[in-house]
Amino acid sequence: GVAVDVFNSTVLLPFQGKSSFNGYDVQTPIYATKLLGLFESSDVEDDFDLLDFEDSIGCNEYKEAGNMPLHTSAVWKYLRDVYELIVGEASTIDPDDDGSMSGTKDVEMKVSPGKGRGLFAKRDFLKGDEVFTTIYGGFYDSQAYRDYLRYLSISGNNDLACDVLQWAYVTKTQLPEQIEKTYLKSGLVVGFDINPGSIVNNDNKNPNVGALNGDVARDVHIALRDIRKGEELLTSYSAFEK
């Protein structure tokens, strides 16, 4: 198969086809058929272990090497296109959402000293202002989540699979129509933010942004205090550990 570099490639899978950021429609039947064929031959079983998978695709080496990329809008679109292909009508993304960089026009990704990647303010914010909005790609069942990770790996994008494993978290939806779709109607959904909101770093003691939770599809993050242009945005990861 072809090892795919999403940053420079015109190939989306280990077979002929243009990438989603060159106008290739990932929803076409032939695309989906070939994808399912790859899954059927890739030993995705119920005992699939995420830690073993993480080790097998070299995530530790990827993290230790440092210099992890600041993803472009094309890469976020790729992650979103693959997500919508895998989950289909079970997508948690609002169909009216205007793109993979939606809700992040006033923030930017940069290198954060000692932390790796980080999210920074592009302008001043006052306490209570909306700073950015995350677009959550949730999986209502674990098999879809596994399929998503395996898809990235099969198409040669282990580094992106490692990123998703690092960013993923469990949230609990409060919306009845979403609760009905979850395992044992628990309301629990696993997923990650498919836009630069995934990059925001943790500060449990002194966060400067916090999320207004409710709809699993998107979280509006507001300023908890005045924030200056160029300041790193920090949230409390403890909100994801309930």
UniProtKB/TrEMBL annotation:
Domain SET: 105-238
Gene3D superfamilies named among the record's database cross-references: SET domain (2.170.270.10)
PROSITE patterns: SET (PS50280)
Name assigned to this protein: SET domain-containing protein
Organism: Triparma strigata
